[in-house]
Amino acid sequence: MPVMALKSKTKSRNDDGEMTFLQHLEELRWHIIRALMAVVAGAVLAFVFKNIIFDSIILAPNDPDFITNRLLCRLADLVNAPVLCINQNPVELISIKMAGQFTTHITISLVAGLIIAFPYVFWEFWSFFRPALYEKERQYARGAVSLASLLFLAGVAFGYFIITPLSINFLGSYRVSDVVTNQINITSYIGSVTSVALSAGITFELPIVVFFLARIGIITPEFMRKYRRHSIVIVLMLAAVITPPDVFSLILVTIPLILLYEVSIFIAARVIRKRAESDAAEEAATAEAEEAAAAQSANKADEAAKQTAEDKAVDQAAADPGDDKQ
């Protein structure tokens, strides 16, 4: 009996037809479980295809034949700038732990699983929060899952194909002294590659973050325009650290990030304008409804007054014959 009572209690809803707190927790738990299952499935897939993940993806930016390295070397020949030809001497990678390569294999498989399953994971959490939004907010957020996934994958691609080769070239060849030889631990190398790619993917989510922050009034386009110069300086400093000492590489990394910031300003301005138009339309509709209600009340009052006058006239007419007979 107690078990059945507990089940019936958890399945019941409030008088308003809304889910209870425990039901929300249960719903969130299943969304998290399905998201984790998707990540694990992607991780298993990445674990099986080890050669592709490591030789063709993770270790590829260290290879002189990597597409970015080859294109930059061709450009270096065209413009006579040898400094652009990067990663021609691959970084020597070592493993200093007995289980180092196995644990690295598992870690990279999990990261790859997260990247592969990201669209589905985002969709799961979006499905949990979507019922709490009003219809108008759902219209604003329509396509958020697809856009967020595309931006994340674009950021990962940018970090992998652009920032990672430049970072490997700079950090792998940097020396404090000729006496010190660089022998990079495989864990350190893979950590750098994955962190750069994932950080770029998260950074490319800036328009989505700005959209929601502007929607709830936390950030405004005026604020972003005010601190535009500060953001440009920060981007230039970061780009100068990870790129070779030439203008082309600096521009190659800086321009996409600045464009991303400008797109975010445009999105914030559009959201604020739409919200102002929506508020104005709501105020106009409210004022019109109030005027209609006032007019309806006035008509009812006039009708009531007319009805009262007619009733008085009828009563008066009914009373007059009696007075004549007297």
Q: What is the topological layout?
A:
Elements: H1 2-11, H2 21-48, H3 50-58, H4 67-79, E1 93-94, H5 100-129, H6 135-140, H7 144-173, E2 184-185, H8 186-203, H9 206-215, H10 221-226, H11 228-242, H12 247-325
Parallel strand pairs: 1-2
Helix pairs in contact: 2-5, 5-7, 5-8, 7-8, 9-12, 11-12
Structure, explained:
Helices cover 78% and strands 1% of the residues. The chain is mainly α. The protein has helices spanning 2-11, 21-48, 50-58, 67-79, 100-129, 135-140, 144-173, 186-203, 206-215, 221-226, 228-242, 247-325, and strands at residues 93-94, 184-185. It has a two-stranded parallel ribbon with strand order 1-2. Helix 5 (100-129) runs antiparallel to helix 7, helix 7 runs antiparallel to helix 8 (186-203) and helix 11 (228-242) runs antiparallel to helix 12 (247-325). The protein has two domains: 19-130 and 144-204, no CATH class; 205-298. Mean pLDDT is 80; it is low at 1-12. The protein has twelve helices and two strands, in the order ααααβαααβααααα. The longest helix has 79 residues, at 247-325. 20% of the residues are buried.
